[in-house]
């Protein structure tokens, strides 16, 4: 009867140990394996029938086994990192087994496989190291070329960047001209970063965003108690804040005429008076202005002071619109796609040739800002890893509508070239006869032959 009870208890115990999600092993006081569950078989690749009844150190290096240490130390182990084999990383909990009289019978070990976690951690460490390396390279690149954040390899863009870097080393006033969205402020920041003032303030002021009534206080600041509602301690203006650094005046064409006079005085005298103040404050600033307006035309209309225009127009940078540098679109799109993929924790998308061609043919009235907006919409709404023409039609219908016209024009040109070539062949190169056959003048025929490069 007692033997049946013991047999049943052993059966229950083995059933519990077998259902464990971890590798469970039991050795006796001599280090011989008494129990080896199914998960231990899977983890170590050793069948139970092969190891049970044999010494464990016949399958593992003795010095690598925590469970054998327990036979000497009699100490419990709880959630300790353990590597019994070079290819296995284990979290082990182990316990010595004693009888009722305190005699050592053996030890039990529960091994949890954490190899995948360790490998992932190693990959993460490697990736972090690579990211640090890339970041270092990026910072080094920025150190040598602060305009490297402005993406594009087109000749038009490179020429402007070269001029910007050249003028950055001076304190010359710079006027940046270009349509909305071409990146005028990026150029201004790049010039500042490449200058001797790079460690000093860069203060940006959008002249078009300040109410006319607040222009003076924003630009020049005010002394305490200058007017109702003023800060009791007074306040420094943007010009004063930019001292020793760079003052970037965006949308300079919107500056009111009375403020233009005061800005001209700052450029001439290099000093500023706060509202309510009686003493001048010396300022050492470099001025960079930007506009999407034709300042010369505004001068002619009497809306912009001629003397201020010439003060600002020491060096002019004309930023080309995106439609004039279509070859830069793939690099820009890739940059923005990666930026938003990281931001929204998504895999980067790739554009098909057709989709990228549509982007290249589009006019981009909003320039880089519009392109960036499209990239964000692609990352948010497109679930496929690739972006096709049909996807663009859903996200930005007018983009694909506009690109149809150049395609039709190209098809028409190709048809006309074919007709002229055939007419010349049929008339054995007689241009007068060919022109008559085509129903056009000989002068028109000569122009089209030159246009299409027909020999």
Structural write-up:
One of its GO terms (molecular function) is ATP binding. This is PAS domain S-box-containing protein. It holds the Pfam family Sigma54_activat. Keywords: ATP-binding, DNA-binding, Nucleotide-binding, Transcription, Transcription regulation. It contains 19 helices and 16 strands. It has helices at about 1-20, 40-45, 50, 65-75, 115-145, 155-170, 185-195, 215-220, 240, 255-270, 295-300, 305-310, 330-345, 355-360, 365-380, 390-395, 395-425, 430-440, 440-450, and strands spanning about 25-30, 35, 75-85, 90-100, 105-115, 175, 200-205, 220, 235, 245-250, 270, 280, 285-290, 315-320, 350, 385. Strands 2-1-5-4-3 form a five-stranded antiparallel β-sheet, with helices on both faces. Strands 7-10-13-6-14 form a five-stranded parallel β-sheet. The protein is about 50% helix and about 15% strand. It has four domains: about 1-115, Beta-Lactamase (2-Layer Sandwich), CATH 3.30.450.20; about 145-320, P-loop containing nucleotide triphosphate hydrolases (Rossmann fold, 3-Layer(aba) Sandwich), CATH 3.40.50; about 325-395, Orthogonal Bundle (Helicase, Ruva Protein, domain 3), CATH 1.10.8; about 405-450, Homeodomain-like (Arc Repressor Mutant, subunit A), CATH 1.10.10. The relative contact order is 0.07. With about 450 residues, it is an alpha/beta fold. A hairpin with a 2-residue loop joins strand 3 (about 75-85) and strand 4 (about 90-100).
């Amino acid at each position: 009867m007692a033997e049946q009870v013991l047999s049943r208890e052993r059966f229950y115990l083995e059933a519990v140990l077998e259902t464990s999600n971890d590798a469970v092993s039991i050795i006796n006081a001599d280090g011989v394996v008494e129990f080896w569950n199914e998960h231990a078989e899977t983890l170590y690749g050793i069948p139970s029938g092969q190891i049970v009844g044999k010494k464990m150190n016949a399958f593992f290096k003795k010095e690598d086994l925590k469970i054998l240490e327990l036979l000497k130390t009699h100490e419990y182990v709880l959630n300790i990192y353990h590597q019994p084999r070079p290819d296995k990383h284990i979290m082990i909990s182990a316990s010595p087994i004693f009888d009722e009289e305190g005699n050592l019978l053996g030890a039990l070990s529960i091994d949890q496989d954490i190899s995948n976690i360790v490998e992932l951690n190693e990959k993460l460490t490697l990736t972090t190291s690579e990211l640090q390396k890339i970041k270092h390279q990026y910072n080094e690149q920025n150190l040598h070329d602060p305009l490297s954040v402005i993406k594009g390899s087109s000749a038009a863009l490179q020429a402007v960047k070269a001029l910007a870097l050249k003028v950055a080393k001076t304190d010359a006033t710079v006027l940046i001209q270009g349509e909305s969205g071409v990146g005028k402020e990026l150029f201004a920041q790049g010039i500042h970063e490449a200058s001797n003032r790079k460690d000093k303030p860069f203060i940006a002021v959008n002249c078009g965003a300040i109410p006319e009534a607040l222009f003076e206080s924003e630009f020049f600041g005010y002394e305490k108690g200058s007017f109702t509602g003023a800060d009791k301690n007074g306040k420094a203006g943007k010009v004063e804040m930019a001292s020793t650094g760079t003052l970037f005046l965006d949308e300079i064409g919107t500056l009111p005429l009375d403020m233009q006079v005061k800005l001209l005085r700052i450029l001439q005298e290099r000093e500023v008076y706060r509202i309510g103040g009686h003493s001048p404050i010396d300022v050492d600033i470099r001025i960079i202005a930007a506009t999407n307006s034709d300042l010369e035309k505004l001068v002619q209309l009497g809306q912009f002071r001629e003397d201020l225009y010439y003060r600002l127009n020491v060096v002019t940078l004309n930023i080309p619109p995106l439609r004039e540098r279509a070859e830069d679109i793939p690099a820009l799109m890739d940059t923005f796609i990666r930026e938003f993929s990281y931001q929204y924790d998504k895999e980067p998308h790739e554009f098909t040739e057709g989709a990228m061609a549509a982007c290249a043919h589009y006019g981009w009235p909003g320039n880089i800002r519009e392109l960036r907006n499209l990239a964000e919409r692609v990352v948010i709404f497109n679930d496929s890893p690739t972006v096709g023409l049909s996807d663009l039609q859903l996200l930005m219908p007018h983009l694909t509508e506009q690109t149809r016209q150049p395609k039709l024009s190209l098809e028409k040109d190709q048809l006309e070239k074919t007709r002229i070539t055939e007419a010349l062949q049929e008339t054995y190169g007689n241009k007068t006869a060919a022109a008559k056959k085509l129903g056009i003048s000989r002068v028109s025929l000569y122009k089209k032959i030159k246009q299409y490069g027909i020999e």
